[in-house]
Amino acid sequence: MRDAGPRLEEMTWPQVERAIRDGRDTALVPCGTCEEHGPHLPCGTDLFIAVECCLAAAGRVPALVAPPLGLGVCVSTDGFPGTVGTSAETLRGLVTDVVRSLGAQGFRRVVLVTGHAGSLHLAALREACLRLAREGAAQVAIISLYDLITEHCHDLVETPGDGHAGEVETSLVLHLRPQLVKGTAAAHFPALPRFEVRASVRKEMASGVMGDPTKASAAKGKRIFEATVFALVSALVEMGK
User: Fold this and answer.
1) Judging by DSSP bridges, how do beta strands 109-114 and 63-65 pair with one another?
2) Which CATH number fits domain 16-160+226-239: 3.40.50.1000, 1.25.40.10, 3.40.50.10310, 3.10.290.10?
3) Distance CA 57, CA 55 (A)
4) What is the pLDDT of residues 9-59, one digit of tens each?
5) Are 120 and 73 in contact (CB under 8 A)?
6) What's this model's pTM, rounded to 2 decimal places?
């Protein structure tokens, strides 16, 4: 897809300074991870979705898109090749440094837009943002794209309980990065342990799919993407009031 909004790393420093002075003082930070997404989707799925949503949103609200944070906390996918995760401590430190840096150069608001929704990943983001909010470095916010999808795209999704590498993510990648999709995969809904803490659940994960990719399509991905971007823009406008 064509970039719909300005990437900070592609701008010169005078351009960035001028943009902030002219009111583009919200920085969107795409957050994702590198982890398996079944045998059919690229390991960068979460990050690709977050980047494209931020670029599209930055074309509609006064914001710049900061360099993406492409690694995050992975647990259930940790036993698969291609999954490259960080500790929660590392992620907290990275987010803290990035937000402080953006705030110091004049960004009034920093919004972490995450395409990875693992519980420990989100907890690390929230802990870092709580610390930053107490410091007052900038107004900070976290938006999980899958919260927006669950709330605004339920009528577009056929699969109850669809999740990782399933109908939604496969549809989005078919729309955003079709050249990276390697066919499809069978539906799979692994029974993960509710209470037991294990070092690996790869045996239960099998193919790495949690949902039904067979119901995905590029047309559905386009509709999900547009609805998600609309919801993201609405959230950013609400924060700016």
Assistant:
1) unpaired
2) 3.40.50.10310
3) 5
4) 999 999 999 999 999 999 999 999 999 999 999 999 999 999 999 999 999
5) yes
6) 0.95
